[in-house]
Batch of 2 targets.
Target 1
Amino acid sequence: MLQVQGVVKNYATPQGPLTVLAGVDLHLGERSSLALMGESGSGKSTLLHLVAGLDRVDAGSIRIGEQRLDQLNEGQLAHWRRTQIGLVFQQFNLIGSLRVEDNLAFQARLAGRFDPHWQAQLVERLGLGDLLRRYPEQLSGGQQQRVAVGRALASRPGFLLADEPTGNLDEATSDEVLQLLLDLLRDSPTSLLMVTHSPRLAARLDRQVVLHRGRVVPMDAR
Ligand SMILES: Nc1ncnc2c1ncn2[C@@H]1O[C@H](COP(=O)(O)OP(=O)(O)OP(=O)(O)O)[C@@H](O)[C@H]1O
């Protein structure tokens, strides 16, 4: 269970401090999915980075179960990221020098959680069987994003954080990739926090919230 309470995040800018998150509250239960929406610049990626342990809060807390992220040192945070977080970005971010099969296994191996049986299931369900020996540049956008989804889920993380994962894909491919992702989540111990600009895609998740003026509000409360 992820609990975000009163989170504040400021950035230093030439014009002075910019408060992007001004007291964000959010919770995400086990095996559930949440869509995070909001205007461009509202702080969605900032919040995702904080939850991923890639950046630190200025005030408030992010708790996973009983553990507070702000009380972890850098080494513990890195361990948290490796074992508990799967990340999927709009730009796919595959490793260009590795074949699909090694991209898929990359994070699970790093986390010491490589499971050949789960990997084989991911390959089959994501339809990657014929592509395993290819390099990322030899794949379409939709194929690359299917590899990125498989890589993020291979280590069976507690949380999958997806930042506009289908932002670079056409509508039909977006639907297909999201459906594959949601189907896989049913068989994983993984909760999904997904940033999206698309109300259509957001509606497919369990809950939808909006970041507005530094706070999280229900979908229709702006
Ligand atoms: N490192 C930084 N230093 C200063 N300002 C930053 C930094 N990172 C982000 N910002 C600012 O913080 C605000 C929120 O940015 P963020 O990327 O979190 O928004 P977003 O909701 O994800 O936007 P988009 O939908 O366009 O991706 C923006 O005004 C941005 O310019």
Note: DSSP finds seven helices and ten strands in the chain.
Target 2
Amino acid sequence: MTLLYASTFADALGKLSHNEQKQVKITTVDLMMDPKGTGLSMERLNRAGDDKVWSARVSQDLRIILRRDGDDNLLAYVGHHDDAYRWAERRKFIPHERTGAMQIVEVVEREEMAGPLVYTGSSSEPATQEAQPFWALSDDQMLDVGVPSEWLEAVRAMGEGALDALFERLPAEAAEALYDFATGGRLEDHIAKPVEPGSDPFAHPDAQRRFRVLDNVEELQAALDAPFEKWAVFLHPVQRELVGREVTGPTRVTGSAGTGKTIVALHRAVHLARGDEEARILLTTFSEELARSLASKLDLLVQGQGDLGDRITVRTLDQAAEELYTAQFSAPTRATASQIRAIIAKATSAGLGGELTPQFLLEEWIELVDAWGVTDAESYATIPRIGRRTRLGPRQRETAWAVFDDVRQRLTQRGLVTWAMIYGQLTEWLRDGGALPFNHVVVDEAQDLTVAQVRFLAEAVGGRADALFLAGDIGQRIFRLPFSWAKLGLDIRGRSHTLKVNYRTSHQIRAMADRLLPPSITDMDGVEEGRRGTVSVFDGPAPDIRLLDDEQAEIACVAAWLKECTSERIAGGEIGILVRSEGQFSRARDAIAAANVGNSVRIATMHDAKGLEFRAVAVMACDEDVLPDPVRLAAIGDIAELETAFETERHLLYVACTRARDRLLVTGIKPGSEFLDDLRASDTA
Ligand SMILES: Nc1ncnc2c1ncn2[C@@H]1O[C@H](COP(=O)(O)OP(=O)(O)OP(=O)(O)O)[C@@H](O)[C@H]1O
């Protein structure tokens, strides 16, 4: 006996009220305990396209739609009486004739096709003025990517305006392939692996993304408790493969914002914990807020799975390093930026540093000397000056080194360390035989790792198989200058994989945000992260960019938008207002006050927005003198570093825009941030 849970069931359950969900849970648990459903009121739906389809009564009005095959039950849908019956009448459960994957196929009805998919009848030539992106595709081409046979004609006749409806109407694998093709990709990249004749249609990777076997009541309850958290139950085949893959060395998963990198990292940690009772896993990221969010998602994943969660420790990497440092040495006292600034100022006023300005020396210390753990004048002369274009002659280097030497000595005298020094010392300790209390490390948001952290991780895991799993997106690097990981001993070349399905943001928002970044970004080790071919799984209203005359006008514009959101029943907690820096918080607050929408709307800086997501986002104060941040840029003396900082400012706007699921408003005061010109550029994807 098996109980299968379909993603369509999760979607439908999520639309019911809290009380109705409770009633459904009782009925499904009964069904798990008694698969024959003897105590339930069941009815076979003869009119359904499949004689194995039944309805089970939950309450007077609620019905579950099931597919029953012997003792096996598949929870397919749940809804109010008429809605549930209508859904069942229009669905067939059949293995795909080419791929072998079990699909739930919507019945194609001509009159109904006047809806979002425009069916014009003939496939031989385009019948309307609207372009028909698939009209020249052969049956074979479409069958190869999982288009159900009865949809072949309808897809060929589809107008391009109906593209966004693909995901609602077709099985996901077919929708992804067709969408990618229509936007410049290749169908060949989506051909499913052939299956053995007679193999289980539910075991096919494409079927596993929509059907999941639930082995016990705990698993069922966990799935039913969080119908919105579909990621906890259903993974894309590529995500699933990455989670379970055995790798010979450090590996990295990349992908643009919202493609599920964090989800893969979480499942990976659980997979490692499940596979080995002795496993000790560090699941880590860079900020405390992100670590908290990882921990709460992890709780959901390990719910009902005994002590599995105890094998996984969630910490920021800095917290983990600090704990380790305290255990091995003593509790570190960290030098603050102003202490370092003061030491440099003192050194220069005492005549050290020659012509070099304190500002230049501070940057040089932060970006090179401290970041790279330089401890002597010889190493300082040979360190790669990536991101710093200012060349220093031998004499200047010597002069500068006198200052850095002074900084190092003074920090030592006062018992102060920097983060880089903490990691540096831990790396030495590992080199001398020390070992982490973890045998696996999973890092989320790895694009912002520092040089010292990369060295530490490289030393901690060496080349050990399955020991280090990194998730990140170079396009979202918002803190660091780029550098080569491979040169520091962390080589992921040949073991980097890109996710292409965006689950968070609508097509419209993703397409607009993508204009901020090049179609592919190559890291310092030559590993390319392609953003082309990424598809979103749902559709939404077009994002809006508004440039206003002054702050008051902007506040009024955002207030009107907030009211519109709440009138569309978007709760305050599902709305975020993001700004470049805390200095613009007052504008966000004024907009919330003017809209009178209570105080649950979240305000955050673009930096803190990482890891958050909202149904609706307003990115406010994108003014010419706010983004890129002129104060930050003015503080930079080196041209190349200026360029990098400029890029990270652009990345910040990308991060902010991609926090939105359905609605996005971007505002600023005329003439507006220069980045808005890119956002506005016509979509050439
Ligand atoms: N297989 C899946 N099924 C359903 N939802 C998913 C799936 N994978 C990811 N999601 C959802 O997509 C959204 C984005 O996922 P996630 O945060 O992992 O993306 P990300 O690539 O880490 O994004 P970012 O780069 O912005 O941090 C989340 O709401 C997540 O729940």
Note: The pocket of adenosine-5'-triphosphate is lined by residues 230-231, 234-236, 239, 255, 257-263, 473, 476, 503-504, 613, 658 (CB under 6 Å).
